[in-house]
Specification:
Blueprint: H1 2-13, H2 16-28, H3 46-67, H4 69-108, H5 119-123, H6 130-149, H7 151-158, H8 160-169, H9 173-196, H10 201-235, H11 241-264, H12 266-269, H13 273-299, H14 306-315, H15 321-351, H16 361-393, H17 397-415, H18 426-458, H19 502-516, H20 527-552, H21 561-589, H22 593-676, H23 697-706
Amino acid sequence: RKIWIAVEGRKRTSSSSRWGLADWDLSSMDHSMPPASSLGGYEADERLAARHATTLAEESWRSLCTANASTFVAAERRTVQIQRSLKDLLSKIEAETKPSTRRVSKALDPKYQPGDDEDEAEEGEEIKPATELLADLAEKHRLRRRTLMQHSSLLELLELPSLMDACVRSSLYEDALSIAGFANTLERRHLMERSEEKQSAEDEERGKRGDVVAGVVSEIRRREADLRRMLINRLRGDVTMPQCLEVVTALRRLNGVELERRNNSTNKSGDDLEGVHAAMEMRLQVDFLEARDAWLESGIAKIGSAAAAVAATSSSADKGGASAQSEQILDGIERYRTRCFEIVTQFLAIFRGSLAPSASDDSQDHSFSLLSMWTARRVQSFLTSLSSNMSLYVHDTATLRDSLDSASFFASSMGRVGADFQPLLAPIFEPRLTEMIVGHWAEGLSGMVEILKACRDAGIAGPLVGAETSTTAPPNGGSTDGPEMTQSSRTPAPPRKLLAYPPLARFLNSYLEGLNELRRCLLPGAFPAIRAAQAELVADAKLALQSNERAVLTPGLRGESAKLREVASRMKTEMEELATYMNSCLEVSLGSVDYALAEAKKAREIEEAKAEARRERLAKEAAADEAARLEKERQEKEKAAEAAAAAEAERQRQEEETRSVEEKRLAADFATDAQSTPVESAPMTGESTVDFGQVGDNDFDDWNEDGDDGLYDD
């Protein structure tokens, strides 16, 4: 304080310029003592040296005070505040202890009688006799002495939360769980028993002391939550099976501590401990799968991600980008497989045998259904990621085949735990294989269309026509033209005449290049889609050639129009034969050579059957015509015979009518003659005068009809 007053006084009496000048003088002075030789042989004056040192110390002290003036001021202010606080504290203590002191003095005064003091009624507290007061003081002293004797135990009790926190941070799970179990014991002994009975005045006093125990127990409960979070967080890392067992065992013991705490309060709350235990076990399984799932996600890079692919490509430029991407994808699939299988194996090893034999089947069903749901979700996530990466980063069948092998091995590995998903791989790889093959075919078709359009626009036919090939037979005696199938190589021989048409030859090369991709990866499920794509390709190629022919036939085509028209017509004709060859090549690429031969044989048989049917139909038509002609002639003959018979019958009828008339006339004449001339009897042996031989049978009838009385009945 004196130093501060001196500094403040000096600052008030001195100006800033003078202080600066003094500082400059002090700093510019040479405070070193001159050597003894410079005094001219005189001895140094010790008093002068001491005075000089005193001056230097004073100047240094003043500079120090000036530099730290703010510190001195702050210290003075704090001193004043502390003095005021001490005065307030003393007055408060005096005010609080004065009545007690007065009561003690009155109680110790043997001459004091209750009621003598007027302040006693105002204070409202009864002044006890000295004996009772001394007894209370002795009891309090005894309690405090006992507390002092248990000082080390109390310190250990109060240090339990910090000790448990240190155990948690040091991964000493056994010690931390022991402290948590001891907290349950403290709660049962000091808190549960007191809460069951009605509190009296003494119980309230004990309750105040029990607040310390409650605080310690509450702190330990918070450390239990920290321990649970730390254990679950440890499962988020790369841990082995023994480490997993250790962590899960610690979590189960922690659940046991919680269950014990609930058991202590069962009489009051009536909780179902078995249901609580089942819920805790289910929650433990959920936490385990969530933590291990986080480890799976954190450790697996995106399969074939763009950044990883670029990094892999740049780091392995010698190997090529395709191989780098392939390695990246295969590495991701393998990592996914190992981690998924490890998680499932750990779960089954830890929780499958965790249920007691008396446990219900519902608990086991819940456990396995939980694992099944997690496995299904992870498999679906893997398939989704794999599908996206197949479409983005797989452009050749070699990589596709390697990815399929890895994914199939992954699926078969998961099949050992009941999660085989091999049937789900076909919808991912088969469409991608078809897309790659159709891509080669589309490039060939577009190239042919572009060449045709360019030559048509330029009016030149040279790029469309190549050198004519020789038609001589090859050394093996086979044919040079047509898609003939050789049994030695079991592959179709290409039609050599296509060399005369480079656009068609290049189109066929692209087609065969797409089929060559099937040698590395052949998936039977993609056969229908590939066949449909091949049929569509042939139809598009024919349509393109037809469009080209119509375009070159347009009037006003410049350049080599005649040759362009001729080439367009020939290419259209050759495409028909090329389609058959392409179909044979496709069947051979799909591994069905015998099928291709059978199809060719079947086609020949069909053609022969059609020709035979045609011949039979013509023969049947000729036979039918002949039969119709004969039937017509027969009918005409029958009609002629009927007409002749009718004419003959008419003639006979007319003759009969004529004869009947003649006979009637003769009969009439005979009758007339008989009436006019008598008949002479004649002997029986003589000849009759009437010639009966000229009379017919009808004449007798006519006579009978004329009324002759049966003259000639005999």
